[in-house]
Amino acid sequence: MNKKEKPSAVSGFGEKIRFSLVLKLNLRMLGMLLSAFISINLLLSILLFGTALWRAEAGAQKFITAYENSIEPMAEPAAGYEILLVESEKKGLRLPGLLQSRLPLNNPEVRRWISLPDAEPEKTFFSRLEGATYHMALTAKDTPLQIAYTLEPDLRQIYFILLILLGSQVLYFIGRISTNNQVIRHTLKPLAEMVETAKSIHQDMSGAEPTGAGIKRLAGAISTINARELNRGLSIDTSQEELKDLAYAINDMLQRINQAYQSQVRFVADASHELRTPLSVLQGYANLLDRWGKHDEKTLQEAIDAIKSETENMKVLVEQLLFLARGDNNTIHLERVVFDAREIVAEIVRETRLFDPAHTFQTELEGPAYLEADQHLIKQALRILVDNSIKYTPAGGMIQLKVGTEHETVKIQVRDNGIGIAPDDVPRIFDRFYRSDESRARKTGGSGLGLAIAKWIIDHHGGHYEVLSRLGIGTRITLSFPAARTPPASSEGLPAGSSNLDAE
User: Closest Cα partner for 43 from 272, 232, 317?
Assistant: First the structure.
């Protein structure tokens, strides 16, 4: 009777260990994601509220300037403003001196505070918050003035922006819970198979330890492994010959789990850093405008151009992150159609010549070269390779694109005579957020995600790539895809045979 009960106990213990590992790994990754969201939301709230105060004081500054330079009576204030000829100050939250010195009314005599309506039983905190008023007290033309600005429209706008952002983050957070569980459980699947093997060994084991003490010690060692010690592994006891293969299998499994876990951790950390950097740049240029850009048109235009550039970079980065996230979740649907790869390459070259006259483009198109793939994604992958060649090839350089077929395989090649890639960096150029030269990446605006997206597209179309690069000579990337067995129903476009389209 005891012999029949022990295997079920081992099985239950293995299931408990697997659940514990899944829970710990999932909570740790979600915790890091949550902390990144909180930091981004806090920084964005501060920037939006500071923008509201800046807008309030900019309007007040226009009114004061017009009043001081005019001999007419005081004009009516703009919408949202109220002018009071009083010297008294209401109770409220006074702004810190460091913040006051950076606002448009750069006058040490200006007193600023934020007031809320008096507390009443029927009013909630949020209804009182909607009645918040920003006060600025100063003297103009020897007349004490108190300018009151209603913050309700700005606070309502900030509320809706943060609500939309929070809703998006909650949906993404919930999606990651399911995705993380699936990934971790799939990775831990060998653990369940290992438990079944252990049950079989326990039933058939004989010799020095017929009571199953070796398996008990092995299970005890597994229970001590947690999410922070996945690389520790199990020690191999030479006296337990029957369990050596099992221990080796467990160590190999733990190593794969640790690699996947560390990859997820690095991705979350890198994504948080990449999203935080553009916000820091925007804040820096806002400070530049505050210090000496208000009256300097050159500095003002420089800041506006930089803010527009960083906003565009952030938009591209978010789109790339969303693409990779959908790819990891297996939610990208491939719309496979049969098409001629030569037409895609010729279309890319025509489009690129319109905005990049600094490089010479050369094409060698041999075909027909039919692919059964998602035409939009294949074009996106090739566009990424061509854009990289443009970034790292000096003006006047040549970029060559070739299409050909070989042994039921379509080969597409992108070649340039640019600066090349160091041998140590070549194996890692398709890793997410990897940059061989950080200073060069900042100059070209790259995020380190383009080639990772191209790799995902290539892998999910059953293709593979080959990279050959030499410093100072150039880079050649060759993509190979399975050729389509049947041509499209209507194959109009480039003629069959060899075609050589050189740049002008």
Answer: 272
Q: Are residues 207 and 326 in the same domain?
A: yes
Helix or strand (DSSP H, E) at 383: helix 375-391
- Structural Rg of the chain based on CA atoms: 32
My answer on whether 143 and 258 are in the same domain is no
Strand order in the sheet with 81-84: 81-84, 143-150, 133-140, 111-115, 93-94
Single-letter residue type at 210? P
Q: In whole angstroms, what is the distance from residue 208 CA to residue 419 CA? A: 65
- What are the φ/ψ torsions at residue 57 (nearest 5 degrees)? -75, -30
DSSP state of 498: E
411 plus 343 within the same structural domain: yes
Q: pLDDT tens track of the chain, all 504 residues?
A: 444 444 444 445 455 555 666 677 777 777 888 888 888 888 888 888 888 888 888 888 888 888 778 755 566 677 778 887 766 666 777 777 666 666 777 677 788 888 877 766 666 666 667 778 888 888 877 778 888 888 888 888 888 888 888 888 888 878 777 777 677 666 666 666 666 666 665 555 544 444 455 555 666 566 656 656 666 656 655 445 556 676 777 777 777 777 777 767 766 666 666 666 677 777 777 777 777 656 667 777 777 777 777 777 777 777 777 777 777 767 788 889 999 999 999 999 998 898 888 999 999 998 789 999 999 999 989 998 999 899 889 998 999 999 999 888 999 999 999 999 888 888 888 887 776 665 455 455 556 778 888 898 999 999 999 999 999 899 999 999 999 877 776 555 565 554 444 444
Query: Where among 332, 348, 381 does a domain terminate?
Result: 332
Query: How many structural domains does the chain have?
Result: 3
Q: Give the whole-angstrom CA distance, residue 204 versus residue 435.
A: 54
Burial of 392: CB neighbours in 10 Å, binned 0-12, 13-18, 19+: buried
CATH number for the domain harbouring residue 387: 3.30.565.10
Instruction: Please spell the DSSP secondary structure of 429-492, one letter per residue.
Output: TTSTT--S-HHHHHHHT--S-HHHHHHHHHHTTT-EEEEEEETTTEEEEEEEEEBPSS--SS--
Strand order through the sheet with 464-470: 464-470, 474-482, 409-416, 398-405, 360-367, 497-502
Domain-ending residue, one of 124, 157, 190: 157
Same domain, 308 and 357: no
Q: Are residues 94 and 175 in the same domain?
A: no
How far is residue 300's CA from residue 294's CA, in Å, rounded to a whole number? Answer: 7
Q: Are residues 317 and 363 in the same domain?
A: no
Question: Do 325 and 210 reside in the same domain of the chain?
Answer: yes
Q: Which two tokens stand for residue 491?
A: 């194959």
Owning domain of residue 177: 1-73+158-332
- Strand ranges (E), 43-142: 81-84, 93-94, 111-115, 133-140
Q: Are residues 351 and 488 in the same domain?
A: yes
